[in-house]
Amino acid sequence: MKIIVVGATHAGTFATQQILTNDPAAAVTVYETNDTLSFLSCGIALWVGGHVAAPEKMFYSSPEALTKLGATMKMRHTVTAIDAATKTVQVRNLTTGATFADHYDKLVFTPGSAPIVPALPGIDSKRLYLCKSWDDAKRLQANPPAGSVIVIGAGYIGAELAEQYALAGRQVTLIDALPRVLAKNFDAPITDRVETLYREHGATLALGETVTGFAEAAEQLTVTTDQGSYTADMAVLAIGFRPHTELLQGQVDMLPNGAIVANDYMQSSDPAIFVAGDSAAVHYNPTGQADYIPLATNAVRQGLLVGQNIVTPTHAYLGTQATSAVELFGHCIAASGLTAAGAAARGVTVATVTIEQDYRPDFMPTTTPVQVSLTWDPATRRVLGGAVYSQHDVSMSANVLSMAIQTQMTIDTLAMVDFFFQPNFDQPVNWVNAAAMAAVAEADR
Questions:
Q1: Cβ proximity of 331 and 353 under 8 Å
Q2: Catalytic annotation on 10?
């Protein structure tokens, strides 16, 4: 059986590793456009901020490692066409320009995603940067802003970049078309506090503004929006990603945005084509529906499942809660599942509650508040989401919330789940228990 893997970032790398771990004699050919693989782009902002000791450690695998496992690695090769009916791919060698065809029995389609780059005036400015690939990272690291920078997009990537530039003493403007920072990740009780942190560090927030164009003048870049204009030494575009699925358009089932729909065993509607990572839809457990949530954690798990199911469907996908976390200005912010805004956007009815308590007793020498939000289904009382915010490291609470959602726990159960108490670490009633108790009280009114 001939297996072709298209793209080897996270999903493709893990799929290849798992296939060859299960069957070292498997015939696997990997086509990858770049000359590197497995780059952890989530570390770009940390590298820009000087927090990465060795940038080469931002790769966890290599072409040599996959070759050693038994893969035939075709780096700097791009697949230009796929014909699912004949099970053939057309390939271009980016070094020589040569083109050729290859045949597969099973195709692992994992090219990932591409940055959204709108066709706006001045979009090709040399002072406008992207933040996705290893090449983007090197360009950002080599060209720090002299004094000012505009970050476009206030999701995780843009928020982290803006924070690092602000901490480095740059004058930062953060622009987003949505009315709040991290609006797709957290509700207002948390984002209000995050926005205050940016302002306290001198950042200008241009929220609810849509970028309309770019113009260079006097070695600076002016970014125009529908409400004004902002000028800086450079700008970074980080407004999101789109699934890189054009090669299979019309050949397999997709969501409206192009994300490929897979079954529980990571097979597309064509059973010979497996899909994982940022090109794939996920099964989003809070809603029970297919959704597009490009996260490395999803890519890794889906890639492993491809490797386990490539011969025979045996290991079913558990779905995802889209659990995530970020540290901004010394504050831990973490979440899992639906926010109230995310539920409204998906047409899901939820109830929500927010509490705040110190993370440990006041008799300890120091303590600090934890803010917790919890979202649940008012009909079934099932936990659907939650978020935490604190200067204390409460990030693992997002994993607790993820488990609660995964196992379809109710607010009543979560309120009484056994969490330890020890004064160094928490209160007699842990903040997650306390949030669930508040939810029960609210639901019983």
A1: no
A2: yes
- Of 10, 244, 283, 331, the active-site residue reads 10
Phi, psi of 113 (to 5 degrees): -130, 170
Tens of pLDDT, residues 231-288: 999 999 999 999 999 999 999 999 999 999 999 999 999 999 999 999 999 999 999 9
Residue (of 209, 234, 231, 210) closest to 222 by Cα position: 231
Report the run of H or E that residue 289 belongs to, with start and end.
strand 289-291
> For the purposes of burial, counting CB atoms within 10 Å of the CB of 196, is it exposed (0-12), middle (13-18) or buried (19 or more)?
exposed
Q: Which of 137, 325, 113 is nearest to 236 (CA)?
A: 137
| Spatial distance between the Cα atoms of 123 and 140, rounded to a whole number of angstroms | 17
CA 75 vs CA 41, 65, 131, 298: distances in Å: 19, 13, 22, 24
What angle, 0 to 180 degrees and rounded to 10, lies between the N-to-C axes of helices 431-443 and 396-406? 40
Cα 174 from Cα 159, distance rounded (Å): 8
Q: How far is CA 236 from the centre of its chain?
A: 18
Give dist(CA 397, CA 417) in Å, integer. Answer: 13
What backbone phi and psi angles, to 5 degrees, belong to 166?
Answer: -65, -40
- Tens digit of each residue's pLDDT (9 = 90 or more) over 351-362: 999 999 999 999
40, 152 contact by CB (below 8 A): no
Q: Mention every residue, 6+ apart, whose C-beta is less than 8 A from residue 49.
A: 163, 164, 167, 168
Q: Which residues pair with 55 in a beta bridge?
A: none
Residue 40: partners with Cβ closer than 8 Å, 6 or more residues away? 58, 59, 60, 296
pLDDT in tens, 9-64: 999 999 999 999 999 999 999 999 999 999 999 999 999 999 999 999 999 999 99
d(CA 152, CA 133): 17
Residues facing residue 103 across a β-bridge: 88
In sequence order, the 6+-apart residues with CB closer than 8 A to the CB of 438 are 353, 355, 374
C-alpha distance across the termini of the chain, in Å: 61
Query: What's the chain's length in residues?
Result: 445
Backbone angles phi, psi at 382, to 5 degrees: -70, 140
Within its chain, how far is the Cα of 113 from the centroid? 11
